[in-house]
Design a protein that fits this description.
Distance between the termini: 25 Å
Number of helices: 5
Shape: globular
Radius of gyration: 16 Å
Number of strands: 10
Strand order of the largest sheet: 5-4-3-6-1-7-10-9
Length: 187
């Protein structure tokens, strides 16, 4: 059975992008050989990629047109992609499909997957899936920068959700990869 793993880079003050959509300049200060290697591992370990609509649109625009070559571009374009959306009726990016009942779809996919499913970015989607107890792991790269303002990765919640630390791995860039297992929400 596959796991559902969230991956994102966040600033020390909790933002995953600056004040404008796709304002990700702070990612550059985290990048180095360790994140490059991790990017390649995602392609090997992933059964599929899962995105919210906004993240999907940005990823599709970049990866389907970039002149960058290499293994990451290959897997980003080749892997199956699931788009959580109630407003889109079709997805044009290679191997993509739109799903309106994302929680139901992910429950089924996790049961039949031999590899892991990865959510890249997609803060709104992550926020909707946490109370559903579908996320097995939250993997964050904590970037040593204070943005001051932007879009927070975690949204306000009605209740606290404890997390169990699985790993804390410092990188040569000064960033730290943190892996957490969310504890199930009991209604």
């Amino acid at each position: 059975m596959g796991k559902l793993i969230v991956w994102n880079l966040v600033s020390l003050d909790g933002y995953f992008e600056g004040t404008k959509k796709w304002d990700l300049d702070f990612h550059g200060s985290a990048w180095g050989p360790e994140l490059d290697e991790l990017s390649h591992e995602f392609g090997e370990k992933a059964e599929a990629l899962v995105f919210g609509r906004v993240t999907y649109e940005g990823m599709a625009a970049y990866w389907s047109t970039t002149e960058e070559e290499g293994e990451v571009k290959t897997y980003m374009n080749a892997l199956p992609k699931i788009v959580a959306s109630r407003t889109m009726d079709r997805a044009e990016w290679n191997n993509s499909r739109v799903v309106s009942d994302i929680a139901g779809e992910l429950r089924q996919m996790k049961q039949r997957s031999e590899k892991d499913l990865y959510i890249f970015g997609s803060a709104e989607l992550v926020d909707s899936l946490l109370p559903e107890n579908l996320i097995d792991e939250i993997m964050l790269c904590l970037v040593p920068v204070r943005l001051g303002k932007g879009t927070p990765f975690f949204k306000s919640a009605e209740a606290a959700m404890p997390m169990t630390l699985l790993e804390a791995r410092p990188l040569s860039s000064g960033s730290v990869i943190l892996r957490y297992a969310p504890q199930p929400v009991v209604a």
